[in-house]
Amino acid sequence: MVYPSVGICSLAVSFPSVRRTKDYYKEKYPEIVAQVEQKSFAKMISLDNCKPSNEFELEMMPYLSDPFRGTVEQRILAPGESSLTLEYCAAKNAIEAAKLSANDVDLLLVASFLPEQVGFGNAAFLARQLGLQCGAWNLDASCASTPIALQTACALVQAGIHRNALVAISCTYSRFFDKDDTLSWFFSDGAGAFLVSSLKPNQGILGTKTVNTSILCDQFSFKLTEDEQGNQQFRMQVPKGTNKAIGETAADLLLTCCEGAIAAAGVTLEQIDFFIFNTPTAWFASFCTRVLGIDPERTINVYPLYANIGPALTVANLYHAAHLDKIRENDLVLIYGFGAASSASASVMRWGDVALGSAPNNGSDSTMKNSETRSIISC
């Protein structure tokens, strides 16, 4: 059966207004920085033994001398900002970039990690802000939400059920860590959005492969606590063995999904022009290129700009690659994302004439170009 050509027609990103560098922590928490190797962040990203035991740990090794483990900058929510405000900005820009109106959107898929309220996702609230009349669904695949949402939206448009599906992805980790917790150095906030519609013949999504990540179910959790004023708050819990568990499983997940998507698309690894990985650590892109045996010039790494923004990383990498002309119309692009206690997923698509929303006003592309010349980010 021949399916119609469907894929991304517009793409946008949105980031909060607070930009935080390593100097913030050095100036505000000098005692913690001095003792960082005894703190939670360093314990999570470390080696039990001196020698690495897998590709993930090999690529991690150069960053262990950096107390920030390669984190350079973060984007943090300011008062009045939220996952909804970020999603709204990205979604609005994606609609406008596609030269469509709210009435043209006939499905909204939203993946918020995590939504603003307990018990309800952001989808209906975002639909209200955008003035949409269509269905609004919440989707959860943790840090794999971008490829999973893309796969879902493309399938529904290919089936003829919908014409223009809007996808919004956000991550607001800063809400779930105390500022003096060194784990907060690793996490950040951001959002992205894209419209999925019909494209020119032979463009759009060509093949996918998704597997579950139940093997990582015990690595992240949330705990309800109280602050000093007695207000209840959620705090993310990350056990010491998380880094090791990810390192031992990451290569198999990457290979299974990428090789499966390439086979489903009927192409070869060598034919892929560009690779987009979610980059939750400073070395994840290098890890992926090592495992797949590809030239590092065939991918991009926005971790130095944004740190770990969860599912929004895949959108951010995709946006910056397109904005820097690393991806051009009719290029074969593979995207990959994985999330603990969820799924790992890869998709191969032939890039269309994708309209981009306005660039983040933070000099990010020039920073991106400069960061590409540095294989190791020092402290």
UniProtKB/TrEMBL annotation:
Keywords: Acyltransferase, Transferase. It holds the Pfam family ACP_syn_III_C. The keyword tRNA-binding does not apply. Residues 263-351 form the Beta-ketoacyl-[acyl-carrier-protein] synthase III C-terminal domain. Residues 139-210 form the Beta-ketoacyl-[acyl-carrier-protein] synthase III N-terminal domain. InterPro entries: ACP_syn_III_C, ACP_syn_III_N, Thiolase-like. This is 3-oxoacyl-ACP synthase. It comes from Nostoc paludosum FACHB-159. The lineage of its organism: Bacteria, Bacillati, Cyanobacteriota, Cyanophyceae, Nostocales.
